[in-house]
Amino acid sequence: GYANEVGESFRALVPVPVVWASYGVATAYVTADAIDKGRRAATAHAQDPTRVGVAVVDTFVWQGLASVAIPGFTINRLCAASLALLGTVTRWPLSLRRWATTAVGLAAIPLIVTPIDRTVDFLMDSSLRKLYGTPGEP
User: Fold this and answer.
1) Measured CA distances, 4 to 31, 44, 47, 53, 79 (Å)
2) Model-wide pTM > 0.70
3) What GO terms fall under cellular component here (predicted)?
4) Which of 44, 45, 68, 84 reaches 20 to 30 Å from 97, CA-CA?
């Protein structure tokens, strides 16, 4: 699910289509996870197709935000800022600045996961999940 963050980290070194391909991989993961959650919900709640739909939509939206959109944007901006900053404060050659930017992006991935996941939980609980509630609520 975090393939696009790796792609964004390498943006300064690879052609843009490679970065977009990493988004394709991440989106395929999100879609597969949503389908899997739907199948599990269908097995557990065969009489309630609404719960199946909720499982698929909730998973797809959550994963889309927490695994693709927000982390991708975060790493993209972090790498762009670090490349610009390194260009301003160092005399390193461009190739070294690009590799350093890639290292910054890769190092940041594990640091952003938990804060983004918690933020997306809060956003989903405060918005979309209010529309369909939790199981057992009226």
Assistant:
1) 14, 32, 37, 26, 13
2) yes
3) mitochondrion
4) 68
Tell me the two tokens of residue 131: 């529309």
Token pair belonging to 35: 């389908």
Number of domains into which the chain is organized? 2
**Terminal CA-to-CA distance of the chain, rounded, Å?**
34
Q: Which sign, positive or negative, has the C-alpha torsion 68, 69, 71, 73?
A: positive
Write out pLDDT tens, residues 6-22: 999 999 999 999 999 99
- Domain range enclosing 28: 1-47
